[in-house]
Amino acid sequence: AIFGLLSSLNLLNLGKKEGIPRVLNYMPLAHMFGCGTVIAISYLGGEVGFWQGKVEKLVDDFRDFRPTVLAMVPRLLNKLYDKVRLELRKKGVIGRVLFQLAIRGKLALIRRGNFSQNTIWDKIIFNKIRRSFGGKVNRVISSSAPLSAEVCRFSRSAFSCLFMECYGQTECVVGCSQTLNDMESGETGIPTTMNYIKLVDVPEKEYYAKDRIGEICLRSPAVFKGYLKDEAKTRETIDEQGWLHTGDIGRWTAHNTMRIVDRKKNMYKLSQGEYVAPEKIEDAYSRSRFISQVFVFGNSFEHYLVAIVLLNDEFIKQWATNEGYDYQGSLSSEMGKKLKQVVLDDMTREGKKRGLMSYEQVKTIEFIKEPFTMENGLLTPTFKARRYAVEKRYKDLFKKIYKSAQD
Q1: Residue range 190-263, CATH number
Q2: Which CATH number describes the domain made up of 2-177?
């Protein structure tokens, strides 16, 4: 499976210009993405660096190590996109227009096979981004979770090099990967070497394989043998024919590449019977400038979703100044009430732009002050929320949110 990934990344035939691959690993070696990255680069005789272990120092680690290959998780690319977009929005209409023109201009060149890093758009916007990662990047890999098309387009433009999305799990390593000539955004390419893929029906969500959409199932020598001392869970995950049921919903595109569109697992069933995938909704809401972190919650006793939100303090200060509030880090009752509605409205707009159905939209929110981190056990090493831990920590708050919404 790792050989298949190396082939798709064209890392097996590096020339003198690219040099030996260098990668900075910031994930635990117990995590398949981190472990696989170290094994792959070591196999090629490359160099592997390890971060300091502090999220706030990660950008410094990238800049100092100067990697040639970036192994990225979507959370980091989302943060980079939001930061650049926010800085350009501060410049008003001109900044927003330049941002869109830069991405369109770069993508037009890349689709023609031109990865030049000396365009006017590089001088205005993108050179600064590449320098913050050491200025030597010639390959970018995104994996561990779906990446939105807009962030993918931005990332491909910003790094102006081979940018590839891969799909896999701990149980199967790498299942799909984009190829050198695949320039589509938001897709995870074709099966890698040794992998077979099929889609199976998910009738409870009205996904049917005949429509080229369903649960992704994988079969290959790279699929794991089973869970340690848990035969029941193993049989639930791997069927009698040896197919691994991933729990992810995929769609074959018109180009016969895979697009991850939903999640069978980690779903809430609402009281009227609809199933909703909170991670997809959170990804849409995370585009809001007001939000630093968001967690969507639902249960089968209620017909709507709620959410807890960690505010983006930098943008809140800007908003408060424009609205005439004296914001010093804490919200007054009046400001808090108004801000809550403003944030909810902005979340709803972002959700509509990304195709959320009405029942997928959150109906009420509450602000929290403590961020999700690895230290407090609410964040995974790939910067995704630990759903069970968050639900347990904020169990009483979710009850309170539902109760206040009904009063």
Answers
A1: 2.30.38.10
A2: 3.40.50.980
Alpha helix locations (H) across 294-367? Answer: 313-323, 333-353
DSSP assigned state of 248: E
Look at residue 324 in the predicted model and tell me its pLDDT. 86
Q: How far apart are CA 217 and CA 236, in angstroms?
A: 13
Angle between helices 74-89 and 149-159 (to 10 degrees): 80
Residue 29: what residue type? Answer: L
Q: Give the rounded distance of the alpha carbon of 63 from its chain centre.
A: 22
Please report, for residues 254, 305, 349, the alpha-carbon distance to residue 358 in angstroms, rounded to integers and kept in the order given: 28, 10, 11
Q: Which fold has domain 268-406?
A: GMP Synthetase; Chain A, domain 3 (3.30.300)
Burial of 77 (0-12, 13-18, 19+ CB in 10 A): buried
pLDDT score of 143: 85
Return the H-helix or E-strand segment holding 83.
Answer: helix 74-89
Give the span between the Cα atoms of 297 and 310, in whole angstroms.
14
Q: Which three-class secondary structure state does DSSP give residue 295?
A: strand
Q: For residue 27, how many C-alpha atoms fall within 13 Å in the half-sphere facing its CB? A: 24
Distance of alpha carbon 292 from the chain centroid? 14
Query: 33: closest CA among 166, 152, 155, 230?
Result: 166
Any idea which residue has 């890093």 for tokens? 117
What strands, in cross-sheet order, belong to the sheet with 258-263?
196-200, 213-219, 244-252, 258-263
* Confidence band, pLDDT 50/70/90 cuts, at residue 12: low
